[in-house]
Amino acid sequence: MAVNAVREPVFTLAAGPVSVYPSVSRAMSRPVHYDFDAYFQAFYEEVVGKLSRALRVKEPALILHCEPAPGLEAAAASLIGRGDVVLNLVSGVYGKGFGFWAARYAKEVFEVEVPFNEAIDPQQVADALKRRPETAIVSVVHHDTPSGTLNPIAEIGEVVRRHGALLLVDAVSSFAGMDIHPGTCAADLFVTGPGKCLGGAPGITLMAVSPRAWAKMEKNPDAPRDSVLSLLDWKDAWSREKPFPFTPSVAEVNGLDGALDGYFDEGPENVWRRHAGAARACRAGIKAMGLALWPAREEIAAPTVTAVRVPDGLKDTDILAAARALYGTVFSKGRNETLGKLLRIGHMGPVAEPGYVMVALTALGGALRALGRPVDVGAGIEAAMAEIARADNRP
Questions:
Q1: Domain 11-17+267-393 class?
Q2: CB–CB of 163/122 below 8 Å?
Q3: Separation CA 174–CA 278 (nearest Å)
Q4: Is residue 336 pLDDT above 90, yes or no?
Q5: What is the pLDDT of residue 393?
Q6: How far is Cα 79 from Cα 166, in angstroms, rounded to an integer?
């Protein structure tokens, strides 16, 4: 190691990628098999079946062999045609970003936008669709991670389905951390990944695609083929009878298998309860220390990330550096419009546990003290402990 190398963190409590579960590490150490071998083709089909069960869909799930950012771009390129009007719902950085991808392919993109500490009101969606009845596709981020906020995705999905448009949902940082599935929000294209709440490695994209969405893509003359952005190329790759368009990420598929097994072994409802309990305890501690949450209302705060306002007079980079140097603990800062305004504590996968909440509160409070900002760390710990002791947080 170089003399001036930055030391490895002790605790990574960021907004993802997360520290993987031990079962994922073990799975990724399995042999890397040849993708045309019958063993791997049967194994891949089995993993897709598990993924479909986790997503609670009847159709075979889709795996793209790239991380979810290009996966979302691929969704835009494949689903949106040059004649389409797209309504993009913007409540944060990633929602805003998807609009740029959509604009490359659509006839027109118009947006409903709210402040980045707020959530979309379903009535806003209904009103927008009434104004523009020709809207073919609606896109929305369920949990906009740089803000730590949730949109009411089930209610939005109901509005969109009544209108008849297709709904594209970015659930990258919410699926497996709460009760969100394609069916519960009427999503036609549901995009997520293993590197957040599933506690897996971040190198692949997981999707559920409705028959309506497949039909739309197949009729879209501009949908990419023979491309890394093509969903259609991978439509039938789940079957052991069909070849892969190009070499799949074998080690990542092994890791996904381990993550899904862990998810089912613990029980999805137990996983969601654990995430929600950690977030409630963390929010209680943050408030007891005299700090402010970023979301405008606690009911829209995500159970997977706690976003904390940077106290006046301090810099986010200084707080993060102090937490890392003094306590070996890594948090996330904001992004783009939220950069410099908030810090983010992740409750995803293995770190969605009470003990890590205590680490987070201690590291954050200690960093603030070191920077001359008095906070009552003890009050924060006591408040978090009281929340953890509540019956609905117990195993």
A1: alpha beta
A2: no
A3: 15
A4: yes
A5: 53
A6: 9
Residues 6+ apart with CB under 8 A from 191: 68, 71, 72, 75, 168, 169, 170, 171, 172, 205, 206, 207
Give CA–CA dist 75/100, Å, rounded: 13
| pLDDT per residue as tens digits for the range 45-100 | 999 999 999 999 999 999 999 999 999 999 999 999 999 999 999 999 999 999 99
Q: 22-264 belongs to which CATH class?
A: alpha beta
pTM of the model: 0.96
Domain parsing of the chain, residue ranges? 11-17+267-393, 22-264
The CA distance from 139 to 117, in Å, is 19
Alpha-helical runs (H) found in 339-376: 354-370
Q: Compute how many other C-beta atoms are within 10 angstroms of the C-beta atom of residue 264.
A: 13
**Residue in the block written with tokens 């906070």:** 375
What 3-state class would DSSP assign to 110?
strand
Q: How far apart are CA 249 and CA 335, in angstroms?
A: 29
Q: 210-238: string of b/e by CB count within 10 Å (b at 16+)?
A: beebbebbeebeebbeeebbbbbbbbebb
Do 140 and 86 contact (CB within 8 A), yes or no? no
pLDDT confidence bin for 209, thresholds 50/70/90: very high
